[in-house]
């Protein structure tokens, strides 16, 4: 059987694994050594050293992650934001211009609007599904177009093929944050994206016990990012590599359950009289439903919604829940719930959030592995306490 033709669930278990097994260990051991014996490396970046992200724990992850998205290469980092910042700083310099989706993860938004402006990097926000907007804001200095497969926290889906065609026609680098979708639901390299970025803290690890990131894509580009990362020092510790390696192996079964549960819960909320709006790309009422159906193999366990009424009704609802944990982050085995205005998008001003469509009433839900009927019952009893 060709490894390239193996199914994703098989690649999750076997891609990149050491053959023969290290001392016969079925689980790859943790190589907790900061440095390794010199074996004739001709480049500084090829020396075996933890900070250079090339220990056996790192290298197995690199091969596995690349295989999952049918890409050429991959690189793990110390966090999702390390992946985002290092990648963008590799390809953007003072005077360059970036086109980026109008609603992004708050950390990425703040990096672009605050830090990049101080570095002399220009940017414009664009609608993910309006190519005319991209053309209008294109500049001679534009180098990169940046999107999220499923946006945080409004769950919008861009015109993904349109982005690639636009990037190629204008010789731009196409980047996409694939965290919310995961390789189970979308593999950017297959469609033609140059690079995808993940916060591995979320679905890829899936157990809420590490912080990690990854960049996946064309090998020549990943090599450039690796050299920048080696200088910036955003290294993933071997023990975190071990935990990510372990977590990845159950991604297919976790994501299948979360795709199904997320859809059931989105349907329940959409039909509840106390809910004003539900954002979930698997619902036919979602503005990007057609794009989501066209490009995605599943819609993930992420959704957001707004409760009717004042802010105190939102807090009353959150406090009445028994199963979901009120906490930031997402993609774990436990269901997490949060108000983006207080967590993921707190760095935005109220005016910026309002412009982006992120109301103070907006609630983001990351569906875990609990039984969806139990979660629905809990959501229902909490909603009964509102209004």
Give me a quick take on this structure.
The chain is of the alpha/beta class and 387 residues long. The chain has helices at 8-14, 56-68, 80-91, 106-118, 131-137, 160-169, 182-185, 188-191, 219-232, 238-248, 251-270, 289-295, 311-320, 350-356, 372-384, and strands at 73-77, 97-101, 122-126, 142-148, 173-177, 195-199, 213-217, 275-279, 302-307, 325-326, 336-338, 362-366. The termini are far apart.
**End-to-end CA span:** 59 Å
Instruction: Name the CATH class of the largest domain.
Output: Alpha Beta
* Range of strand content: 5-15%
Helix content: 25-40%
The fourth-level CATH homologous superfamily of the largest domain is Type I PLP-dependent aspartate aminotransferase-like (Major domain)
> pLDDT below 50 for ≥5 consecutive residues: which ranges?
none
Please give the count of helices: 15
